[in-house]
Specification:
Elements lengths: L1 H5 L12 H4 L3 H10 L4 E4 L6 H9 L3 E6 L2 H9 L4 E5 L5 E2 L14 H11 L4 E4 L5 H9 L4 E3 L14 H9 L5 E4 L7 E4 L2 H5 L12 H16 L22 H9 L2
Parallel strand pairs: 1-2, 2-3, 3-5, 5-6
Antiparallel strand pairs: 4-8, 7-8
Helix pairs in contact: 5-6
Bound molecules: flavin mononucleotide.
Length: about 260
C-alpha cells in the first residue's frame, strides 16, 4: 500500500501475480522451442529445471545460462548448459544473479572472466560495456570465447526502443547509469532519471520481483507513450556514453569486428 500510494499510476496496476504463477507457462514455452526446432535458448534469473534442459538439448537446442559470479557459472555448467554468459557489473538491463553472495552480486568483467574461465570446461561469453573491437579483444585476452552485446543495439534503426529512450542514451555521459531495484524489485542497470532520484533512499525497500514490476508497469507504459524519459526504465550499460545514434545493426557489428 505504501508503494501503491507513491508510484505514479500504481492504482491502475493489475492484481499481483507471484513467481509461481509467472512460471505457469514455462514448460509450454519450452515445448514450443522443441516443436519449432529453435537452435539456441538463453536463460537468465536462474537455472532451468534439469528435465527441461535435457529435453531441449536432445532436440538440438544450444543452451546458454547467464551468470554473475564464478559460482553461478559453475552450477550452469553442472546443469548441462553448452555455454555460460558472464554478465559483468557493466551490463545494461536486469542482473541475472540467483545465488546468495557475501558481498556485492556484481563483479567487473576484468575479475569475472578469468575466474570463471579457469573454473569451467565450457565456453564463456563476456557481457557488459562492450561496444567496439577493443572490448572484444580485451574480453578474449581475459579468456572469453565470445562476447554478448546489448546496449549498442538500442540506438539502431532496427530497434523498437522509443525516441525518448534513444535520446537519453545518446546524450548520456560516463557515469550516468547505476543499478536500481526501483522499477522492478530486481537489480538492473539504467540511466538515472527523476523516478530513480526521487526514491533513491528507498533502494532496497522495494517489493520483491515481480511484484514491484507490476506496480510500476502503468507508469512506465504511460511514460513510453508520452515520450517522458523521467518515468520509464532507461536500461543501458556502461557503454552508453560512447554511443551515438542513429545507427544500424551492420555498423554496430562492423565496429565490433573491425581490426
Ligand atoms: C534493454 C535491455 C534488455 C535486456 N533484456 C534481456 C533479456 O530479456 N534477457 C537476457 O538474458 N538479457 C537481457 N539483457 C542483457 C543483454 O542480453 C546483455 O547481457 C547486456 O545488454 C550486455 O551488456 P551491455 O548492455 O553493456 O552491452 C538486456 C539488456 C538491455 C540493455
Amino acid at each position: 500500500e505504501k508503494w501503491k500510494a507513491r508510484i505514479p499510476r500504481a492504482q491502475d496496476a493489475k492484481p499481483f501475480s507471484d513467481l509461481k504463477e509467472e512460471w505457469n507457462d514455462f514448460e509450454e514455452k519450452a515445448e514450443l522451442l522443441i516443436r519449432y526446432g529453435v537452435k539456441a535458448c538463453s536463460f537468465t534469473f536462474g537455472l532451468p529445471p534439469e528435465e527441461t534442459a535435457e529435453k531441449l538439448k536432445k532436440s538440438g537446442c544450444f543452451l546458454f545460462g547467464t551468470a554473475t559470479t564464478p559460482e553461478e557459472a559453475k552450477v550452469f555448467e553442472e546443469r548441462g548448459m553448452d555455454a555460460v554468459i558472464l554478465q559483468g557489473i557493466e551490463a545494461g538491463g536486469h542482473r541475472g544473479s540467483f545465488l546468495p553472495v557475501k558481498g556485492e552480486p556484481a563483479l567487473g568483467l576484468m575479475a569475472l572472466i578469468p575466474q570463471a574461465k579457469d573454473a569451467l570446461n565450457i565456453p564463456v561469453i563476456a557481457a557488459g560495456g562492450i561496444f567496439d573491437r577493443r572490448g572484444v579483444q580485451a574480453a578474449r585476452c581475459l579468456g572469453a570465447d565470445g562476447v554478448q552485446v546489448g546496449t549498442p543495439f538500442l540506438l539502431c534503426e532496427e530497434s523498437s526502443a522509443s525516441p525518448a529512450y534513444q535520446k537519453a542514451i545518446a546524450e548520456s555521459k560516463g557515469a550516468d547509469t547505476r543499478l536500481t531495484t526501483l522499477f522492478s524489485g530486481k537489480q538492473a542497470r539504467g540511466i538515472v532519471n527523476q523516478f530513480m532520484k526521487t526514491y533513491e533512499a528507498d533502494e532496497g525497500n522495494t517489493l520483491p520481483y515481480p511484484l514491484h514490476n507490476t506496480l510500476t508497469k502503468p507508469m512506465r507504459g504511460h511514460a513510453a507513450q508520452s515520450g517522458d524519459a523521467e518515468y520509464m526504465s532507461l536500461w543501458a550499460g556502461q557503454s552508453a556514453a560512447k554511443l551515438e545514434g542513429p545507427t544500424d545493426v551492420r555498423t554496430v557489428l562492423d565496429r565490433l569486428c573491425e581490426s
